[in-house]
Design brief:
Distance between the termini: 26 Å
Order of helices and strands: HHHHEEH
Helix content: 55-70%
Radius of gyration: 18 Å
Strand content: 5-15%
Strand order of the largest sheet: 1-2
Number of strands: 2
Largest sheet: 2 strands, antiparallel
Number of helices: 5
Shape: globular
């Protein structure tokens, strides 16, 4: 093993523990975690009336590879969760939309995730939950910076 510091090892152990709990509990029943990420982006765009979402935008927002996105979108389209619509303004651009009939499934899965997060927030208390949120946000930014 290389020369990892004790704090790095402790963080890795905590991270792997949380990942194991999430995967072991089968948090999501009808969507994979990647499908949930995509649905979340599409749902937020829909709710906020933002600009149409393309596969490129999904790659940027989810940090998934284009090949992964294309595979996931094809599967989601086959399951009638999303639809691809050619842009009227730029015929080369394809917009991804969450189908109306997919909303109940996404909303149910979203509630399940929020229930687990509610348990985490309850265990940490309001200040602890706020601190964890801030730390996770900073950790995500640091990891993204490292990748760049």
């Amino acid at each position: 093993m290389d020369s990892a510091r004790p704090d790095q090892e402790a963080l890795l152990e905590a991270w792997m523990g949380m990942t194991a709990v999430i995967r072991g509990n089968r948090l999501l029943e009808g969507l994979s975690m990647n499908e949930m990420l995509i649905c979340n982006v599409l749902y937020q765009q829909r709710q906020q009336g933002g600009p149409p979402v393309t596969a490129t935008e999904l790659c940027r927002r989810t940090r998934l590879l284009k090949s992964q996105i294309n595979h996931i979108l094809t599967s989601m389209e086959d399951r009638r969760l999303i639809r691809r619509v050619r842009s009227q303004e730029d015929r080369r651009s394809i917009h991804i939309q969450l189908r109306e009939e997919a909303l109940p499934l996404y909303q149910r899965e979203h509630r399940a995730v929020l229930e687990i997060l509610g348990a985490v927030c309850g265990a940490l208390g309001e200040d602890g939950a706020r601190q964890l949120t801030e730390l996770l946000t900073r950790a995500t930014a640091a990891a993204a910076q490292y990748q760049a």
